[in-house]
Amino acid sequence: MRVAVTRWSVLLLCMLALGGCSTIKGWFEIDDDEDPRQPVELEKFEQTVKAKRLWSTGVGDGQGDGLYRIEPVIGDGRIYAASADGEVKALDVTNGKRVWDADLELPISGGVGLYENSLFLGASDGFVIRLDASNGDLVWRAAVTGEVLAPPQGNGKVVVAQTYDGKLHGLDFATGERLWTYDSNMPVLTIRGTSTPILQG
């Protein structure tokens, strides 16, 4: 008898619960007029500045198949740009005319860093390169422990480059000789990429 009462009680509770669902039915339905997946209408604005393209040019194969983030840098009225296949160009900032170009014959993965009259680039096969910014001549090429994804930075005394394996390398500005290496612990799972070093002092 007790089992039958329990069954009837459970059945009655289920019926009451299901009956109550009709009162909250509309809470979870999407109104066809207000679909949240639709984009919000853009605000209307008046264009106050008109941009005009002055010039455009390409450098080598650009970012290449490695999807490297090789960024140009501006200094002394020039734009210095590099491509993943090792081409480096100096362009006049006003008209885009070529000042010089160089073919490093190295796969570039990080750059371009600039300090005074020096350019710094990193290679995917573990090299840091310093070029003379006035003519594109190679000053030195130094081996590091891995791929360099961020632009190396210099300050006249040292050139600092971060490699994909978590190491930060300090290289002699004049010769490229390795002065020191700082090793940081890398997580087991990490996103591909490194930050650009900042030198102060």
Automatic annotation (TrEMBL):
Keyword Signal found: yes
Stretches assigned to the Pyrrolo-quinoline quinone repeat domain: 85-200
InterPro entries for the chain: PQQ_b-propeller_rpt, PQQ_rpt_dom, Quinoprotein_ADH-like_sf, WD40/YVTN_repeat-like_dom_sf
Signal peptide: 1-19
Protein's name according to its UniProt entry: Outer membrane protein assembly factor BamB
Superkingdom, taxonomy of origin: Bacteria
SUPFAM superfamilies with a match to the protein in the record: Quinoprotein alcohol dehydrogenase-like (SSF50998)
UniProt keywords, alphabetically: Signal
Stretches assigned to coiled coil: none
Pfam families listed in its UniProt record: PQQ_2
Lineage, opening ranks: Bacteria, Pseudomonadati, Pseudomonadota, Gammaproteobacteria, Cellvibrionales
